[in-house]
Design goal:
Elements (H helix, E strand, L loop, with lengths): L1 H9 L1 H21 L9 E10 L5 H16 L5 E9 L2 E8 L5 H16 L12 E6 H4 L3 E7 L3 H16 L4 E7 L4 E7 L1 H7 L3 H11 L2 E9 L2 E8 L5 H5 L2 E5 L3 E4 H4 E7 L7 E2 L2 E10 L5 H18 L5 E6 L3 H30 L1 H24 L6 H30 L4 H31 L3 H7 L3
Antiparallel strand pairs: 1-3, 1-4, 2-3, 5-14, 5-15, 6-14, 7-12, 8-9, 10-11, 13-14
């Protein structure tokens, strides 16, 4: 152990090179490290949803949930499956072994998707199964963008669609979920009395509309080495096209059109979720990030996009605001870390200056930012992020850094007062207290080590400390 102190003291160039490397690598890692509220991790959990409108819970369990459970039961490492059946809806929660690695879970997740795609005995009218991972970055959006105001719903939806497309292109964004919107619907309300007057049936109206509203493959066209896929597109573009569809030709040249037997309404579906802001209807765009995305950078980019819309593209009466901004909490935590580090440096300088002089105080104070930078460098190598748990660990360790540095520096100062040269004092003073200092640090680490070894989700959260 003594040779380590002698090597450090007698080779200043080596120490300076290590210090410079720590500063450069630590600063680079700090600048580029993702900043997020919670550590990005997978809970080894998958969720499956299937919609089947109008079907009772008993039928949902029999026709949807049970066939899916039987199909995915052979996937490895599944600990349990929990199914929930409600009217028109079935959900299946698939819990995998909590001790497997993220890479292994990703492979099992793909196996689960493959088995789910093989499910062939679901009702034809049921919606396709929807599968998602349960991960920390999908549970809490980084920010919500709310579009509200007293202006037409059509313009509100168009504005939300345009803003959603732009937000989804932001680097680091996983998805932008739209909440509170209503899909446009065209209602053809047929009058039974008019049908009787023209001796028509409802099916004739339906068939006439279906024949004019098509988008079907039309084969292939080869020209030289080029091959083109053709489609016959005949979908409706306007209300007038629907109204003018011919239902029946009348002998003598007359025509019975849809407008003669039905009323056309351009409306929206019934709302399943109602959002309001300050009493006005609203649509929320909930922004979720990718695992390696930086919350602060994403929110800053979202804010820039929103400011652009506010300046140039908002209809009269519309407003866009940001709520549930998780970057504020991250900025606050980073600010507290900076404050604690700065306060620690100032306090160490003041106390040690009073008892051991300014030079020794500076030596100890330098150790605080240098140790933090070395920690950031190691966090960058381990692909960790700055989050609430890592910040807690960093704030906790600041006190340990100061205590150990003061103990070593005080013993070196004592040797210098006893007549040792600065070099000999550094070697002997550091060597004498190395054992107690290391033991004290290991004791503190041993207190938290069992938390990192806990199985399941709790262990994943505590590991970073």
């Amino acid at each position: 152990m003594k040779s380590v102190f002698r090597l450090s003291v007698t080779n200043p160039v080596l120490v300076h090179m290590i210090t410079i490397a720590a500063i450069v690598l630590g600063s680079y890692a700090l600048i580029n490290m993702p900043r997020e509220l919670e550590r990005d991790m997978s809970f080894n959990w998958a969720l499956i949803w299937v919609g089947y409108p109008g079907v009772s819970p008993e039928e949902m369990e029999k026709l949807v949930a049970k066939p899916i459970e039987d199909e995915i039961a052979d996937v490895d490492k599944i600990e349990s499956m929990t199914s929930t059946a409600a009217e028109g809806f079935a959900g299946i929660s698939v819990k995998f072994d909590q001790n497997i690695s993220r890479d292994e879970f990703d492979k099992l997740y793909q196996d689960l998707r493959t088995e789910l795609d093989k499910t062939q005995n679901l009702p034809e009218d049921a919606n396709d199964p929807w599968l998602m991972k349960l991960e920390s970055n999908t549970m809490t959006p980084v920010v919500d963008v709310v579009i509200a105001g007293d202006f037409p719903e059509k313009e509100r939806r168009e504005l939300a669609d345009a803003l959603q497309d732009e937000l989804e292109s932001v680097e680091g964004v996983l998805e932008v979920d739209m909440i509170g919107e209503r899909d446009r619907e065209i209602w053809v309300e047929v009058d039974p009395d008019r049908l009787d007057r023209y001796s028509l049936t409802l099916q004739q109206v339906v068939s006439a509309l279906a024949a004019k509203n098509m988008n079907v493959p039309a084969g292939e066209l080869k020209i030289g080495r080029l091959e083109y896929l053709l489609r016959t597109v005949g979908e409706f573009d306007s209300i007038d096209q629907i109204q003018n569809v011919i239902v029946q030709q009348i002998p003598g040249g007359g025509k019975i059109r849809v407008r003669d037997v039905a009323q056309i309404r351009d409306t929206y579906e019934e709302a399943s979720v109602i959002r309001r802001l300050n009493g006005n209807p609203a649509i929320t765009l909930s922004v979720s990030k990718q695992g390696d995305g930086s919350t602060i950078q994403i929110v800053d980019t979202v804010r820039t996009i929103v400011e652009k819309y506010r300046a140039h593209q908002l209809p009269t009466g519309a407003e866009i605001i940001l709520i549930n901004d998780s970057s504020n909490q991250i900025r606050d935590s980073l600010g507290k870390l900076q404050y604690n580090a700065l306060f620690g440096v100032v306090l160490v300088l003041l106390v040690l200056y009073l008892f051991m002089g300014l030079r020794n105080a500076i030596f100890v104070a330098i150790g605080i930012p240098l140790t933090l930078l070395m920690t950031f460098a190691l966090m960058g190598v381990a692909n960790e992020s700055i989050n609430s748990m890592s910040l807690f660990g960093l704030v906790l360790v600041l006190g340990i850094i100061v205590d150990d540095a003061i103990i070593v520096m005080e013993n070196v100062f004592r040797h210098m007062q006893a007549g040792d040269s600065p070099i000999q004092a550094a070697i002997n003073g550091g060597y004498e207290v190395a054992g107690p200092v290391i033991t004290a640090s290991l004791t503190t680490a041993a207190i938290f080590l069992p938390l990192a070894l806990l199985p399941g989700i709790v262990g994943k959260f505590m590991k970073i400390i």
